[in-house]
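queue> holo job accepted (protoporphyrin IX containing FE)
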Amino acid sequence: MALTPPSERIWWKEPIAKIELTWILIAFCWGLIMFFMMIYWHGAGEQNLSNETYRIKPEVFAERAQAMIDEYTVREEEGFPVVRPPPGSDVYLIARLWMWWPILELEKDQSYRLHLSSLDWQHGFSLQPVNINVQVHPGYDLVMTIKPDVAGEYGVVCNEYCGLGHHNMVGKIYVVE
Amino acid sequence: MATATEFRTCPNTGLKVDLAAERLIKANAVVAIVFLAIGGLFGILVAFTRWPAVHLLPADWFYLALTAHGLDVLLVWIIFFEIAVLYFASAVLLNSRLAAPKFAWAGFVLMVVGALITNVAVLQGDSSVMFTSYVPMRAAPNFYLGLILFAVGALIGCFVFFGTLVVAKAEKTYEGSIPLVTFGAMTAAIIAVFTIVSGAIILIPTWLWSYGLIPDIDPVIYKLIWWGMGHSSQQINVSAHVAIWYAIAALVFGAKPLSEKVSRMAFLMYILFLQIASAHHMLVEPGLSSEWKIFNTSYAMYLAVLGSMVHGMTVPGSIEAAQRKNGYDRGLFEWLRKAPWGNPAFSGMFLSLLMFGFLGGISGVVMGVEQINLIMHNTLYVPGHFHATVVAGTTLAFMAITYVLVPLIFRRELILKGWARLQPYVFGIGVAGNSLFMMGAGTLGVSRRHWDISFADASLPFDYPAAAFLMMGLNGISAILAMLGGLMFVIVVVGSVFFGRKLGADEKVSLGEVAGSGRAVASYGSSDTIKIPGTAVLVAIFFIAFVLYYFVNWKYLSEIWPMS
Amino acid sequence: MAEADDPRPAQSGDDESIPLMQRVLDNPFLLLFLGIAVPALTYLIWGIIEIAQVPIAD
Ligand code: HEM
Ligand SMILES: [Cu+2]
Ligand SMILES: [Cu+2]
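queue> job finished
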């Protein structure tokens, strides 16, 4: 029984039933497939989170974002600047209590270098309805190259708890043709 | 020393039971169940608030209740119960005295005091930081202090366990190797030590920081080390509840492990690799390379998953083999149909096994794929997944073994047997609903830890799809079932402990309709004659579900925006 | 003794005849060491090194 010491003193030498052995082999191979699938996707897949990260002071990040906003704002919406930076450029999205700042307007099928950072606590970048979710930390600038491939209006929900206004923290990204 | 130890003899097994160990097991189990009740209550409040049509609590109370729910069930209930399991698996199963019961009591007191301090801090309202307490959000200093005391107490419990292993070996209270169940408990204890040490490394500085004694704490490093504790503690649960599966299979069916070697190697894979999957929580964080993420999130090429898949076959396999040996040998599934489904120890255990594997295991591995995590991180998919593992898996297994511990250790007969019979199903179905509907909502993008998915006061308008609201309603309804199941459990167990008929000193306990431990299956014959075709079919179904679900999610992933 | 047909040698020689891997699995403190060392190295230390090496934005 499993509740008593093994009945054989030397249990290591007991043979293993064929059916157990078969299952172990199947499970082991499946593990290898799953392992190499992640590596394969780095080469062949198009959805990989960037490893490009820098340490950055919140003030510096805010300044860079502001420079982008000053240069490329095209209109205002509910008090938010709507910014349309040129394709290929560095785009900044500030997370802070409790807003995503500014609203971005991007062109479909163009690449952008999106910078994410927080000015205060941790926040969660949750782009809806595509459902892309990335953690945003203060002091870290995560740079990811994104290429929106469907035009439309996207919500940016905060999905890391960030205090009492957490559920009100919503931003917006437009993708235009 | 040993002379002062008092024993009684268990009429079922003939084991000597150290009365000091027995008292500690009772105390830890009782406190555990009290906190399960408290934490479960908070869980209901949370689920009703997330049910859009009910939206029970105001926002500040919601975040408070969610913090308390996570703490009380995930840490306090589970770890108290695990300490009880450790003492049972060492002192009782090894026929030994417990090493240093005084220390064990000191650990117990520390854990109680710590749990109370943290709960008070949360209820005072300025520590609604979630049980993860990510910096730089700051809780009251006592929030961290209570956790630290609790952890130190639990660490003492682990040392008492290891001490008892040493005592039992030195005093030759058993022959040969420790029983498999004790080996599983030891796996849990080993993981617990790593867990608690990680917790200390990060929580002590954070506590000092909350007083302003340390200027700041790096948020990514905090998270890395915190999850060294937070996720590893889930791996304690896995090891403990797998040990309990084996224990119940043995108690109810007299089942013998198919192969000691295979089951122990599977536990070894846990010891070595289970904990590194703490990386599951770090897959979409800045600052860590893909190499680190892939190696750790895959438990080193999925070797720990291999361990779980092995247990997933050997536990039902040993039950099948035992049942066939006892005459239920017809067809593929007579052994399963004729299993004692009215015995809550068995039904709880088997539901735990099924739901842990099919719901919790598969979703966990899929969510832990480096890239697929992008479409799940911090959505309700995550709580959906872990309600299948830690509630349907661990909690249900702990409930199941409690039905055995009440007569064996508390020496009381169960009251309300009809309720006990139903309880695993009510709770199991409720939790399966919670789990599935939260996963469903998460697939639709809904955020976890979120008070208002209608975004009534949000800075900009936004709507989740209508189906998401339906999911949250169904989740609320499932929560009612889960609550009823939890309540039934608490009433039956607490009622039995206080009012159940006292069992006479040498009264044998019947552990199931099928077999007492007297009918233990000594052997299945040679390894070539082991016949477990029913288990093979179950395992094949599992494998197909796993592979399909895995690739479906890669397909979902391939449909999101290209990014690199 | 009752186990006259027991193949194992007397107590003292016992350990030698036990296969290495079984002895490893019978040694809780070796396992405790491994169970702490592996995650400490591959998860904690490797992870902290990587985070500490994040460059400063220019
Ligand atoms: C009556 C049974 C239970 C119900 C109805 C329930 C329901 C819920 C709900 C609705 C959430 C909120 C998800 C969110 O908003 O993010 C939640 C979170 C959670 N639950 Fe439960 N739960 C129950 C039992 C348990 C048990 C027994 C455990 C642990 C053993 C557990 C562990 C957790 C944890 C760790 C969280 C996450 C807290 C956080 O995000 O900080 N739950 N639960
Ligand atoms: Cu936020
Ligand atoms: Cu938030």
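queue> Residues A 95, 98, 123, 158, 160, 162, 166, 169 surround copper (II) ion (ligand 2) (CB under 6 Å).
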